[in-house]
Amino acid sequence: MKSLEENNMGNLVLETKGLTKYFYDPIKFQVLKEISMNIDHGEFVSIVGKSGCGKSTLLYLLSTMDTDYEGQLYIHEELITGKSDKELAVIRNEKIGFVFQFHYLLSEYNVLKNVMLPGLKLGKLSDEEVEYNAMEHLKTLDMQDQALKMPNQLSGGQKQRVAIARALINNPLIIMGDEPTGNLDKKNSDLVFDIFDKLTKEQNQTLLIVTHDNDFASRTNRIITMEDGRIVL
Questions:
Q1: Which CA distances in Å does 181 have to 40, 101, 135, 171, 229?
Q2: N or C: the chain end with fewer CB closer than 10 Å?
Q3: Residue pair 96/63 in contact by the 8 Å Cβ criterion
Q4: Are 41 and 1 in contact (CB under 8 A)?
Q5: What pLDDT digit, counting tens, does each position of 135-188 carry?
Q6: Is the pLDDT of residue 194 over 80?
Q7: CB 21 within 8 A of CB 30
Q8: Where is 72: in which H helix or E strand?
Q9: pLDDT at residue 174, as a whole number
Q10: Can the peptide bond before residue 151 be classed as cis, meaning omega within 30 degrees of 0?
Q11: Among 27, 217, 204, 81, residue whose Cα is nearest residue 226
């Protein structure tokens, strides 16, 4: 069920207008050229393109982690461009879940605590409520029996499932993934895809995934193809 906020805000989760990005080392180089795109609530979208085309750079702009660009970025129809680092940190924690090629689990904490950390940082719920939600997400990903294990006791595929549970803990508006199956074999890549597909279909979760895996991309709702810093398809 959509929240009242979502009903009032409409269906647009993310929108860019003329996003342009330059690198300056060693010389000025335009890496993104006038990127205008939008993603609706509940869409499962992949971004594909050859290495160096700008897809990961675009994702870092969309995730608000890189603010050095021209153009405008909107999240949930709110202009994000120009906000302070402190404001952006809150937006990232509340509205965006991240899944990377490497799981980035903290080795000193068990699975359950790793999943809980963004929820504890957000501070909107009690520790007990965050723990309950973390277990529920682990159950969704069939990882509840691994909750008290340490990351080094898990397989690569299991670690990535924990990373997905962590990305879900604050009920984000959108989950962004940067090559989330890049380190996985075919079996585990398919498993991660199935998890994402289920989240979209059953929970109307919005997903934006950068991938070089054409098989993965072909099964998403929509493919955005990039070439030389532009969207070509």
A1: 23, 6, 23, 22, 23
A2: N
A3: yes
A4: no
A5: 999 988 888 898 999 998 998 888 888 998 999 898 899 999 998 888 888 888
A6: yes
A7: yes
A8: strand 70-75
A9: 94
A10: no
A11: 217
Contact 212, 51 (CB under 8 A): yes
Ramachandran category for residue 77: left, alpha or beta (phi over 0 → left; psi -120 to 50 → alpha): left
For the chain, percent of residues with pLDDT exceeding 70:
96
Position 10 scores a pLDDT of 63
Written as six digits, the tokens of 76 are 């949930």
Dihedrals phi, psi of 212, to nearest 5 degrees = -100, 0
Spatial CA neighbour of 127 closest among 139, 142, 115, 138: 115
* Contact between residue 180 and residue 103 where contact means Cβ atoms under 8 Å apart: no
- State how far the Cα of 183 lies from the Cα of 107, in Å rounded to an integer: 18
Whether residue 180 has a cis bond before it, omega within 30° of 0: no
More confident residue, 207 or 189: 207
